[in-house]
Amino acid sequence: MPQQFQNLIHGLWCDSSSGQTFENRNPANWKELLGTFPLSTKEDVDRAAAAALTAYRSWRLVPAPERGDILRRTGEIMVRRKDELAEIMTREMGKPLTETRGDVQEGIDTAFYCATEGRRLFGINTPSELRNKLNLSFRVPIGVCGLITPWNFPMAIPTWNLFPGLVAGNTFVFKPAEDTPQTANVLVEILMEAGLPAGCVNIVHGAGSTVGVAITEHPDILAVSFTGSTETGRIVAQNCGKQTKHVCLEMGGKNAQIVMNDADLELALEGVLWGAFGTTGQRCTATSRLILHEAIHDEMVERLTKAAAKLRLGNGLHSTTDVGPVINEKQRKNIEKYVKIGKDEGAKRVLGGEVAGGRAGSTDLRDGWFYQPTIFTGVTPTMRIAKEEIFGPVLSVLKCRSLEEAIEINNSVIYGLSSSIYTRDVNAAMRAVRDIEAGITYINSATIGAEAHMPFGGVKATGNGHREGGWAVFDFYTEWKSVYIDYSGKLQRAQIDNS
Q1: pLDDT under 70 in the chain at which residues?
Q2: What is the per-residue pLDDT across 251-272, written as a single tens digit (0 to 9) for each?
Q3: Which of 52, 278, 311, 386 is surrounded by the most beta carbons within 10 Å?
Q4: How far is CA 409 from its chain centroid?
Q5: pLDDT digits (tens, 9 = 90+) for 282-300
Q6: Domain extent at residue 158
Q7: Residue 424 lies in a domain
Q8: pTM over 0.70
Q9: How far apart are CA 191 and CA 163, in angstroms?
Q10: Positions marked active-site
Q11: DSSP letters along 394-410, please?
Q12: What is the CA radius of gyration of the chain?
């Protein structure tokens, strides 16, 4: 019998009030049922929010360094359980163990980073304009926060939010993606083992249309962080805006790697292979467009096509696998739709473009949601496959004649998350850093590879100005309080014209 998992509310594991469940299956072998999870309701969110509010009243008074110590212990437990966590993740969402170990490591790094921030959380203090008066400012927690996370980084993205939010003194109602619920449960179990008090993180499984909406509309949940599609993010923003909640949105991307005519082509090849087909292209920072200078276009396409054809599809648990499955049938059908669109638009398919069949070692690819790495050439900036997020192993190759045209093509989409340029010209690199419209720019590296201690996020339709990761995330999970201490012994009237 498959394991039956539960929600966590105020430190107690419990079923949904509906009594209904949903299945969690392995995308590399859809016959493998990993477990069932609660299909929760608004009432479950209400209970979780009440538990989080109760916990907040005492958690906010715990000294921040002590809160940080719990995260340090969390990181230590994650180190010990790293391989176990990676295997759970690979079974849930398919990417190879090398990648899921990296996902866990991102969480470990975030735990240790946020643990040290518990001894910082700096305020800003300035001189007063009046005599015998002191001006101070402090970061204070917001209260109960909602967290809605995606399936492609089921460990890293929750930790980017839970860990800084907790060390800042907040509590959470957490809804993980339906495709990766077990990873979320284990993460919360680890936090409890590390000493996190009951109610500080409450996990409620279920559909975004029910649980997610209830989180965005609940009056006691004062901030919401959402990572997912731009379309859904706009709905989240609208719901939160009605109640003037804080909302952090990390949404779509259509990231480009630019390769100039003076670039190291072997290095650029390694970058695009990793950026386009790592995680089966299922990253918000994935390389979806490759912009090649016309002088090296043909050579680069030839090299890329040969190298990508050698990538090995298969179960992510096998050490020989380079590319795992797509997350589910719906997403694979979406990829098939865009491949057809590319053909209809006149782009040339030079590799892939088909559902993967046959066998890979002991894996029958027909049992999972596998799709061949796909490359289109002859793509123009106005084509849909050059503008719209596909979220799969599909790469569009475009041609440019100059750095200025490459940057113009890069900026021609509605998104602005990640970007990359390969060049030996430091002047060209610096102009790209200045002019590319993106929250992240890599020089001579792939469009993927964010580090835990740096701000992460994008511009335009990718986000709403907030950042996850690094010191910047604390700007979202705290409020500023200004304090004026007057020790003059008399009323001093600021903002009065005394000239």
Answers
A1: 497-499
A2: 999 999 999 999 999 999 999 9
A3: 52
A4: 25
A5: 999 999 999 999 999 999 9
A6: 3-251+463-482
A7: yes
A8: yes
A9: 10
A10: 250, 284
A11: EEEEEEESSHHHHHHHH
A12: 24
